[in-house]
Design a protein that fits this description.
alpha/beta; Rossmann fold; 7 strands; HAD-like_SerB; methionine biosynthesis
Length: about 230
């Protein structure tokens, strides 16, 4: 029996922009730019870079940060339909996010139960925001991911499962390498998939993801149980 399991990124994928970047642009001092560039150029790990960026923000800003993202975020078109479709088809969907619980959970409130969401956490008890890491790398990963998507996939999926990865950026690349099919909504991930010979499709809306998965079903059987 082969079952489909979907692992979907949050920032830049479910939301049309990266919420960490949005917060830094609005609230952080200019030093955050150099940290961001170091992450993108892979000079520092995601875990180290994200930690350093949030240490630039006063913990007293918590309510303001949350409200700013609630007011400004946009869900990618079709996401609500995608959630409902996976429920109807009995497909196991997990959100795997390098984002932080204090904004991921409010944005997804009412859309998904929290046990379907993996993300980082934040400690506001000090003067500045300290990020904590409840989903670290396992023994098969030494990339200091923060929220390690490959470790979560290994934890949640069986070898015979058909794994779908949905994402946009460098934080989704290692997960994409474990997937049978990748949906990429940004040229970065699409280019990397092409370079590595991974099975991928480019998408703009989640309606396209639904259509792509329906095509797989026509070829393979039922969604929850591919034959």
């Amino acid at each position: 029996m082969t079952r489909m399991k979907i692992f979907c990124d949050f920032d830049g994928t479910i939301t049309t922009t990266d919420n960490i970047i949005s917060l830094m642009k609005k609230f952080a001092p200019p030093e955050w730019n150099a940290i961001k560039d170091s992450i993108l150029n892979q000079r520092v790990s995601i875990k180290k870079g994200v930690s350093e960026m949030f240490l630039l923000l006063p913990a007293s800003l918590r309510d303001e940060l949350v409200q700013y993202l609630l007011d400004t975020h946009q869900l990618r078109p079709g996401f609500n339909d995608f959630i409902e479709w996976t429920r109807q088809q009995n497909i196991d969907l997990k959100i795997v996010s390098g984002g932080i619980d204090f904004f991921v959970e409010p944005i997804l409130e009412g859309l998904l139960p929290r046990n379907q969401v993996y993300c980082n956490s934040a400690d506001f008890t000090g003067d500045t925001i300290k990020i904590t890491w409840p989903h670290p790398c396992d023994e098969f990963c030494d990339n200091e991911c923060g929220c390690c998507k490959t470790s979560i996939i290994r934890q949640e999926a069986q070898p015979e499962d058909f794994i779908v990865m949905i994402g946009d950026s460098i934080t989704d690349l290692e997960g994409a390498k474990l997937a049978d099919l990748v949906f990429a909504c940004d040229e970065y991930l699409a280019d990397k998939c092409r370079e590595l010979g991974l099975n991928y499709r480019y998408f703009d809306t989640f309606h396209e993801v639904i259509e792509g998965l329906q095509e797989i079903n026509r070829k393979a059987g039922t969604y929850g149980q591919l034959s």
